[in-house]
Design goal:
With 107 residues, this protein is an alpha+beta fold. The protein contains 4 helices and 3 strands, in the order αβααββα. It is extended and about 55 Å long.
Length: 107
């Protein structure tokens, strides 16, 4: 996150959510699922104060604001997580077709 905040205009990003490579970052629902399912707020978030966009009206002081980063990746023992990380449960293609058909029928 700090590396991204150090890259040119990325410094103006108020929120960064880091996810694993198997997460479709173009699917907002999937990113939000990972954010909610894979984070412990104390362990996986960081808040820093640094320069902000001059046009951003939200910070208390002009040009200085807070930025938040979330680590929504799978946790490893080296990160202080000592329990097995669960596999992501996904529907089979057949189950997905059935759900899609039921949703279409229900309107």
């Amino acid at each position: 996150m700090h590396g991204l905040w150090g890259m040119g205009h990325m410094m103006f990003s108020k929120y960064i959510v880091g996810v694993d490579e198997d997460c479709d970052v173009h699917n907002t629902s999937e990113v939000l699922f990972r954010l909610c399912a894979n984070t412990d707020p104390e362990r996986d978030s960081t808040i820093i104060r640094k320069p902000s966009d001059s046009l951003d009206h939200a910070p208390s002081a002009q040009n200085i604001g807070s930025h938040t980063g979330f680590d929504a990746t799978r946790k490893l023992p080296g990160e202080g997580h000592h329990r097995p990380w669960p596999e992501l449960v996904k529907m089979t293609e057949e189950a997905q077709r059935l759900v899609d058909a039921l949703q279409k029928k229900a309107g």
